[in-house]
Design brief:
The protein is of the alpha/beta class. The protein has helices at residues 63-75, 110-118, 127-141, 161-164, 170-176, 185-199, 251-261, 265-274, 277-282, 288-296, 300-323, 334-339, 341-348, 360-365, 390-403; strands at 2-8, 12-19, 24-32, 45-49, 52-56, 90-95, 106-107, 147-151, 207-212, 218-223, 226-230, 329-333, 372-373, 382-385. The protein has an 8-stranded mixed β-sheet, sandwiched between helices. Strands 11-10-9-12-14-13 form a 6-stranded mixed β-sheet, sandwiched between helices.
């Protein structure tokens, strides 16, 4: 079975074709700056197959144009991987928000399509783009090819009400669905299962804390295979500080600054999402590599930003150990989780009460997709660095659904 995985953003389209016989990646690509101008020789399309890559540009793309480009790359380019799109057996779509209704991946039909559209109120930047990708696929492939929605929020659908409810008037939950939803669920689902396999144990016997750390970051408490809490909330802004996002702040800070600075709710949303977090504290760095470099050069604000980030992550890990009455494993994943040796070691330095002791030499050597256990033998709670693969998780969910149609 060949599955096309589509991750459609507001101005980008990422794709992979995966052969589910052995879960090998046949090809992958990225199309960026959809609906945006291209400047100065910028290349917005990358396609990789057969160990080679094509890099070129196309201007004035819509999402439909972008998918037509995908079709050309797969079937007509010099690196083509098939003669016809008829070789695609199914398509798995990343959909950011499934609301409270969808706690698992589903076949997209008219009802699901409408629900994704209605949920755009909760994810205005992502769900409309996800729908554009789906509709472009239907136009190119026809209605007979199964299209599966894999929701970022779905894995967190097992949270109990005590974890997902906010202590605001209950009517806002009833009227508008104001509650914790959580995000990065596809990654948390993949990495918790991967961790169990890496340990040689059944996930239903484990309590795992998964730390997906990147420019956007979240942590989840996975209790015997089910998510019972997660750090992101109603939106991906909640939790701990990220590259440009503030994470949780006292709500009074928001209203105080709106009044003092004359800031509109829209502008405040932009400040909290795009001008806060590590970027704000460090004085302009949001990439972890830049933070490490500045910190090594003695930059006090970069150091403060990194220390704050590690401290906040450690607090969530502690909270989730309490939520599950203990933990068997902690996993670092994502761009920073897999490569940020300083941050991992600093987080673990707070976890001695859990019995965590890591091998600093192993930690320093683990980056660029390498996988390892960081803890020394005999630790009560084991710590791992493992590579996530959201596209493969989407493909696995898609395959399972299609085989049961």
């Amino acid at each position: 079975m060949k599955i096309l995985v589509i991750n459609c953003g507001s101005s980008s389209l990422k794709f992979q074709v995966i052969d589910m016989t052995d879960e090998s990646v046949i090809c992958k690509g990225t199309i960026e700056r959809i609906g945006l101008p291209i400047s100065g020789g910028e290349k917005n399309i990358i396609f990789k197959a057969h160990g080679e890559q094509l890099v070129f540009d196309k201007e004035n793309l819509t999402h439909v144009d972008a998918f037509e480009t995908v079709k050309e790359l797969l079937t007509e380019s010099e690196l083509k991987v098939m003669d016809s799109l008829d070789e695609i057996d199914a398509v798995g779509h990343r959909v950011v928000h499934g609301g409270a209704k969808y706690n698992k991946s589903v076949l997209i039909d008219a009802e699901v399509e409408k629900d994704i559209e209605d949920l755009s109120a909760l994810s205005p930047l992502h769900n409309p783009a996800n729908l554009s990708g789906y509709r472009a696929c239907v136009k190119a492939l026809g209605a007979d090819v199964p299209q599966i929605a894999v929701f970022d929020t779905a894995f967190h659908g097992t949270m109990p009400a005590k974890a997902y409810m906010f202590a605001v008037p209950y009517e806002y939950y009833e009227k508008y669905g104001v509650r914790r939803y959580g995000f990065h669920g596809t990654s948390h689902k993949f990495i918790s299962k991967h961790c169990a396999d890496y340990m040689g144990k059944n996930i239903e016997d484990l309590r795992i804390i998964t730390c997906h750390l990147g420019n956007g970051s979240s942590i989840a408490a996975v209790d015997h295979g089910k998510c019972v809490d997660t750090s992101m909330g109603f939106t991906p802004l909640d939790g701990f500080m990220m590259g440009t996002r503030s994470g949780g702040v006292d709500p009074s800070v928001v209203t105080f600054l709106e009044q003092k600075e004359g800031i509109s709710p829209k502008d405040m949303d932009n400040i909290l999402n795009k001008k806060s977090g590590v970027f704000a504290i460090s004085g302009g760095y949001s990439d972890d590599r830049d933070i490490v470099k500045a910190q090594n050069e003695g930059d006090e604000r970069a150091t403060l930003a990194h220390e704050m980030q590690a401290y906040q992550i450690a607090k969530f890990v502690g909270a989730y150990a309490a939520a599950m009455n203990g933990a068997d494993a902690i996993v670092f994943t994502g761009g920073i989780g897999e490569n940020g040796a300083w941050l991992r070691e600093r987080v673990c330095s707070y976890l001695g009460y859990l019995g965590v002791e890591i091998d600093s030499e192993v930690n320093e050597k683990t980056f660029k997709g390498a996988e390892a256990e960081l803890t020394v033998p005999g630790c009560r709670v084991r710590v791992f660095v493992l590579a996530t693969d959201e596209e493969l998780m989407i493909a696995r969910d898609t395959k399972e659904i299609v085989e049961n149609l």
